[in-house]
Amino acid sequence: MFDTLTDRFDGIFGRLRGKGKLSEQDVDEALREIRLALLEADVNFEVVKSLVSRIRDRAVGDELSKALNPGQQIVKIVLEELTESLGGEAMQVTFSSKPPTIVLMAGLQGSGKTTNSAKLANLFKSQGRNPLLVGADLQRPAAVEQLRTLGRQIDVPVFSEASDPVSVAKASLEEAKRLGRDVIICDTAGRLAIDEELMEEVRKISEVLDPQYTFLVVDAMTGQDAVTVAESFHNTLALDGVILTKLDGDARGGAALSVKEVVGRPIAFASTGEKLEDFEVFHPDRLASRILGMGDIETLIEKAEAAYEEEEAEEAAQRLMEGTFTLDDFLHQMKQIRKMGPLGNLLGMMPGMPKEVRDVEIEDSQINRLEAIILSMTMEERTKPEIIDGSRRNRIAKGCGMKPQDVSALVTQFSEMKKMMKQLGVQPKKAKAKKGGKKGKKGRRGGGRTTPKGNAPLVDPSAVLAEGVEEFQGLRLPGLPGGDE
User: Fold this and answer.
1) Pairing with 91, which of 203, 365, 392, 450 sits 20 to 30 Å away (CA)?
2) Going by C-beta distance under 8 Å and a sequence separation of 6 or more, which residues neighbour residue 139?
3) φ and ψ at 209, to 5 degrees?
C-alpha cells in the first residue's frame, strides 16, 4: 500500500544523507517534499500540517545541531513523529475478569465487518480464548450464512435467530453463558452511507450489550472518506479503536496515517490479506519503519516463529550446511514460508532491501510451478536429483505440465545452491602432524597437537563467497523473476 510513499521518502532521505551538514534551507526543502509526499498519499491536510510542524520544530533546534550525522537524525525524527501520528504504540486488548468480554463490530456495508469478525475470533482463539460469533446483520441477504461458513472454517460457533438485531444481541448473552464462551463478537448491519436508521440500530445494540470494546471496521481503500466515517460513528458510539482492512491493497495509505489524529482513537488491528490468518495487531512503530523503507524485522520474526518449529528449523539449517539438504526438504521449507504470508510482504519487512527487490512481484502461481516440478519426482529423485537423466526429465515435465528445460533449471540451480551453502559450512581444516615426532603409547606419535600453537585458522566465508560469486549471482529458480522460462 505504501510503496509510492516509501519511494518518495527514499529519495528525500538519500539526498539528506549525502550532506555532512544541514542548513535551515536544506531542512525546509526536505520538509516541503515530505509535505507533498504525504498530501499525494491522501493524508488529511490537518494531519500533514501538524506532522510537518512537529518535525520542523525538532529539526531546526538543538536536537539536530548536536547530532554527529544530521541526515540520519532527520530520518530518526521523521520516524518518531510518523509513529506518533499512527498512534504511538500498539493497543492492548484486555479481557474482562467476569466473562464474557463483549466486542461490537460496526462499519459501512462493504467494509469487511463480517470477514473481520471471523478474523478477530480466529486471533482470540489462537490466544487461548473461546469466542462466540453473533450474527446481528439481518438486513443483508446471506450475511448470517456467510458468518456461519467462516465460523466453521475456524471452528467457532455462530449464534443468530430470525427476529430483530436487538433481540439477537440480547439473546447472545445467555447463549454465551450456556456454551461457556468467554468472548462475544457481534457483527452488525451496515449501510452504503451513514443514515439515522443505521446509527439508531447500532446504538440500541450497544445499549443492550454494553460492550467492553467497540471497533469500527474501515476500508483503507476509501482514503480520507474513511476518516469522515470514523468521526460520524465515534460521535454515536464512542469508539475504542479502528480495524483497518485491505492494507495489502494498492491504496495510497491516507486513512492509516490520518485516523488516529483526527478521531483520537487508535488503529487496533489491521487486515493484511484475504485469508482468515491475515490479521494482526497494529504496531504503529513497525508500520512507520516500513513506510520509511527500514523494514519490519520484529513482525518477520513473529511470523517465522509462528510458522516454524525451532528444532525442525535447526535441523533443516544443519542439513543445508552439510550439503544433505534434499528437494523434499526444499519443498517443505517453501510450504512453511508460504504460511508466513505473501512473499512480497515478507520482502518488504526485510531491512535494507533495495527498491528493485521490494518492487518484485512474486505470485503464488510462480511458487506453485516449483512445487509442481518437485511433486512430480519420485522420492529417490528428490533425494538424489543427480540421477535425473533425459527420460526422467521428460516424465517429470509431463507430470507437472512444464517444459523439460524448467526441470533441468531447477535441478541445476538447486545443486549450485547446495554447493554454495556447503562451502559456507566448511569446518576449519586441521594441519597434518609433523613427521619425526616422538612416539607415545602403542607406537603413536607424541604430542596431540595437529596445528601450531594459538587459534586454529578459520575458513573466511567472504573468501568462499568471492570464489563462487558469479555462480551465486546467477542463482535463479524457474518460475521466479529473472529465472528460466
Assistant:
1) 203
2) 189
3) -85, -30
User: Could you tell me if 405 and 420 are in contact, meaning their C-beta atoms sit under 8 angstroms apart?
Assistant: no
Superfamily of domain 310-427+459-473: Signal recognition particle, SRP54 subunit, M-domain (1.10.260.30)
Q: Which three cell numbers stand for residue 451?
A: 596445528
Residue 103 grid cell: 466486542
What is the CB neighbour count within 10 angstroms for residue 366? 16
pLDDT in tens, 325-342: 788 877 777 777 666 666
Enumerate residues 6+ apart whose C-beta is below 8 A from 213.
93, 101, 102, 103, 104, 240, 241, 268
Looking at domain 101-294, what is its CATH homologous superfamily?
P-loop containing nucleotide triphosphate hydrolases (3.40.50.300)
CA 212 centroid distance within chain? 28
Listed in sequence order, the residues at least 6 apart from 128 whose beta carbon sits closer than 8 Å to its beta carbon are: none
Sign of CA dihedral 6, 12, 18, 20: negative
What does the pLDDT look like over 105-139, one tens digit per residue?
Answer: 998 888 889 999 999 999 999 999 999 999 999 88
Name the fold adopted by 3-86.
Answer: Four Helix Bundle (Hemerythrin (Met), subunit A) (1.20.120)
Query: How many percent of the chain have pLDDT more than 90?
Result: 22
Say how many CA atoms lie within 13 Å of 293 toward its Cβ: 21
Cell of 186: 457481534
